[in-house]
Amino acid sequence: MLRFSVSRRPTAYAVLAGLSVSHLLNDALQSLLPAIYPIVKTTFGLGFWQIGLITLVNQMTASILQPVVGLATDRRPQPYSLAAGMGVTLAGLIVLSLADRFAWLLVAAALVGIGSAVFHPESSRIARIASGGRHGFAQSLFQTGGNLGSSLGPLFAALIVVRRGQRSIAWFSILAIAAIVILTMVGRWYVAHRRAMRSAPAVHTAHHGLPRREVRRVVAILLALIFSKYIYLASIGSYYTFFLIERFGVSVQSAQVHLFVFLGAVAAGTFIGGPIGDRFGRKIVIWGSILGVLPFTLLLPYASLFWTTVLSVVIGVILASAFSAILVFAQELLPGRVGLVAGLFFGFAFGVGGLGAAALGRLADVAGIAFVYRACAFLPLIGLLAAWLPDLSATPAVRTQTAGGAA
Fold first, then answer.
1. Quick one: angle between helices 252-280 and 212-248, nearest 10?
2. What is the pLDDT of residue 274?
3. Which pLDDT band holds residue 57 (cuts at 50, 70, 90)?
4. Strands, E, within 97-153: which ranges?
5. Contact (Cβ atoms closer than 8 angstroms) between residue 251 and residue 352
């Protein structure tokens, strides 16, 4: 059995690995919902707007709750809340496997969203604490687990759910139970770590020294970049399989495999972005990621099936490299508010993705799937706003005193 211990090493790799694996399992379960959209669309006779509504309920539930959870855990950390949140996700899976009407699909989507809202802020905080100062690396490793998990959802759907039917979703409860076990051990490490840090001397940390008005402006820019990234990802996550089926006549299973390839590229890009940000600066990663993907998004709606696959991989790698850098950048802007920042940015990403999926679903009903991808291709232009991000390494540092081990 995997064991975590309080270590004097700068980076607690076992904890980061446990969080990454748990994030993989969590997001694999979360991604089962959009992965089975082609199945439930046929089974329940749904329109695209109803598909978008399922995503909206799921992601708005997570969006609204995540900042609240983050603020609450900043004030009073809850080491075992991660395991409890996974229990809510488990309940959502059971409901999803048994749903016999559209309303129950919405209930399942809400439960899965609640589980995600509880998981992300506190796990992001623990990843930062376990990072040993390698914040970009820790967040990238944590996020890579999640993105790998998201890529597995379509593969699970193609290999199991499409063949075995909706009830087979209940089989994935085994993954939820495994995640609960790992997160319980992570919680024990966190409790022991906090106990050890209470007796540690206070440490001095650098503060960027930016005025509050400037901090608010920069946070607004970072959220705009998240908007660009996650609206485009919503177009892929919710409708890419339909686009491939309609444009190229591929089977549902083949479309799911193509979605898996794209999400795998997203996972690779996420891992790359954090360490590069640690070494060369987060602004460079943010600038290159959001705006650098534009030529490829413009080409994708007009490409052949082969080049659509190639472009989707390039887009996934480049676009995904930004999130860890954006999150760590924001955490450095608001020191001592790690949970709030994680909840705000994860929650905003989920909310934007949900609203985007609903709006794009309506647009697809009216104008067609192909038009959705032609319109979304211009979203990376919002990346021009990265020019107004400050270089935090160049700002005058203000020294602040914090308790040992504070994130």
1. 150
2. 73
3. confident
4. none
5. no
* 364 occurs within a structural domain: yes
Q: Are 403 and 201 in contact (CB under 8 A)?
A: no
The C-alpha angle 225, 352, 262, rounded to 5 degrees, equals 75
Query: Quick one: pLDDT at residue 405?
Result: 45
- 335-352 average pLDDT score: 79
Between residues 393 and 155, the one the model is more confident about: 155
User: Residue 322 belongs to a domain with what CATH number?
Assistant: 1.20.1250.20
The answer to whether residue 121 sits within a structural domain is: yes
CA distance 350 to 56: 9
Residue 80 in tokens? 């075992």
**Residue 1 placed within a domain:** no
Tally of domains within the chain = 1
**Least confident among 5-14, 165-174, 289-298, 378-387:** 5-14
Average pLDDT over residues 41-55: 83
The residues with which 31 forms a beta bridge, in sequence order, are none
pTM of the model: 0.69
DSSP state of 336: T
- The mean of the pLDDT values for the chain is 82
Whether 186 maps to a domain, the answer reads: yes
Joined tokens for residue 385: 């706003």
Tokens coding 49: 């707007």
Concatenated DSSP letters of 195-210? HHHHTSPPEEEEE---
Element (H, E) at 299: helix 294-299
CB 331 within 8 A of CB 341: yes
CA dist 135 and 215 (Å) reads 20
Rounded to a whole number, what is the distance in angstroms from the first to the last CA of the chain? 28
- Residue 151 lies in domain: 13-196+212-391
pLDDT tens, 123-147? 888 888 888 878 878 888 888 888 7
